[in-house]
Design brief:
alpha+beta, 5 strands, 93 residues, single chain
């Protein structure tokens, strides 16, 4: 499982995906819908591993600014496993 987290001033949302390709597809759909550009951080945009996430800057063009504005960050990471204890029987004393 992989998690896509999109964080901007307006939203912070995490969705789960079966594989990195599904997370990338969801990110692209978000970027197109919000009229954003994506800029991969050097060395951090490859397929995520358990120890390293893909980090992508979300950019918006603004005619009033000569450079694109960074409006958020997207992260694709291997989902953490559920480590909470699961109790299936009655407690004994």
């Amino acid at each position: 499982m992989y998690e896509l987290t999109i964080a901007t001033d307006a939203i912070s949302r995490t969705t789960r995906h079966a594989d990195p390709a599904g997370a990338h597809d969801a990110l692209l759909a978000h970027a197109v819908g919000a009229d954003l550009y994506l800029h991969a951080h050097p060395g951090r945009a490859d397929t995520p591993t358990p120890n390293l996430a893909s980090v992508i800057a979300l950019l918006r063009l603004d005619p009033a600014h000569p450079q694109p504005l960074r409006v958020g960050t997207a992260t694709i990471a291997v989902a953490a496993t559920d480590t909470r204890p699961h109790h299936t029987g009655a407690a004994t004393s």
